[in-house]
Amino acid sequence: MTSETFLIAMTALVGLIVCAAAALRGWQGWLTLKTRELETHHRPEIEGGVGSGMARIEIADLKERIRKLEAIAAGVDL
Q: What is the DSSP letter of 3?
């Protein structure tokens, strides 16, 4: 009876160690993936994947459009 209990306990312990090792390996892989993502995306980008120079141009264009729309709403001729 004691031998069976010991065998079950050891099997459960080995299973727990295998699961913990697999989880640790997966965690390390996830951290490596996130590190690589951070290294490749160090520049701010907008939707199309363009760099910061194009982003500033697009923001300026959007501000100009907003200004024109506000003028139209106010009834001012441009």
A: H
Q: Are 59 and 65 in contact (CB under 8 A)?
A: no
- Distance between CA atoms of residues 29 and 35, nearest Å: 10
d(CA 74, CA 76): 6
pLDDT digits (tens, 9 = 90+) for 3-55: 999 999 999 999 999 999 999 999 999 999 999 988 887 655 555 555 667 77
How far does Cα 20 stand from its chain's mean position? Answer: 25
Say if residues 55 and 44 touch (Cβ distance below 8 Å): yes
For residue 43, the one-letter residue type is: R
Distance between first and last Cα of the chain: 94
